[in-house]
Amino acid sequence: MILIAASEVPTGGVAGWAASLMESVGAVGAGVAIALENLFPPLPSEVILPLAGFTASQGRISLIAALVWTTVGSVVGAVALYAIGALLGRERMIAIAARIPLVKVSDIHRTEAWFSRHGTKAVLFGRMIPIFRSMISIPAGVERMRLSVFLALTTAGSLTWNAIFVLAGYLLGMRWHHVTDLVGLYSKAVLGAAVLAVLAFTAVRLLRSGKGDHRASQ
């Protein structure tokens, strides 16, 4: 077995936590970290996955095990969120939407219509978009997407995403963190676009609401 010098092992933050998991239980630790990342999106897979690849490159875990267990972790986390969506159900989702300022029940109906047309593509390709790769499981559960289809799409999308970053970390070795730096920019761009979309939605709703109030007062 090839040993990693202490100076090469991250000791702080998410990377240090994930490294200690892999040190304790091997590739299973990488799977546990990714399962938690699905449930708590602030845990970044772009740190955990390349680190798993780096650990494999040093001989501490096998590359195949890293790919298998990180994908298992992704699927387990996604199924947990799917179950939350299924338990929540359509009627509760509509009731919640009715209580959220600026959100209309018709928005839920439009979302349902969109998901019925594009749900399979959303579940598959959504696995490759930060933040959304976790959240897409909830509407899949609410809409009761067939579980076999959900599992197949989630496994395919997660394996693709995971393989890219695990292999990158494996090939880069000690420079695995370069992957994290690069993908961090992608994640920030996605988050920025999401924030802008929410702000635009809010602005449009406030303007329409203001116009409605103005008409009512005339």
Q: Could you characterize the architecture of this molecule?
A:
By secondary structure, the protein is an all-alpha fold. Helix content is 80%, strand content 0%. Helix 1 (13-25) crosses helix 2. The radius of gyration is 20 Å and the shape is elongated. The chain starts with 12 loop residues before the first helix and ends with a helix.
Radius of gyration over all CA atoms, rounded: 20 Å
- Number of helices, counting only DSSP H or I runs of 4 residues or more: 9
Rounded mean pLDDT score: 80
> Uncertain runs with pLDDT below 50, 5 residues or more?
1-7
H and E order: HHHHHHHHH
Q: Could you give the distance between the termini?
A: 81 Å
Which band does the percent of strand residues land in? under 5%
β-strand number:
0
User: What helical percentage do the residues reach?
Assistant: over 70%
Structural class, judged by helices and strands?
Answer: mainly alpha
The biggest beta sheet reads: none
Shape verdict: elongated
Compact summary:
The protein has helices at about 15-25, 25-40, 45-55, 65-100, 105-125, 130-135, 135-140, 145-170, 175-215. With about 220 residues, the protein is an all-alpha fold.
Ordered list of secondary-structure elements with their pairings:
Elements: H1 13-25, H2 27-39, H3 45-57, H4 63-99, H5 105-126, H6 132-135, H7 137-142, H8 147-172, H9 177-217
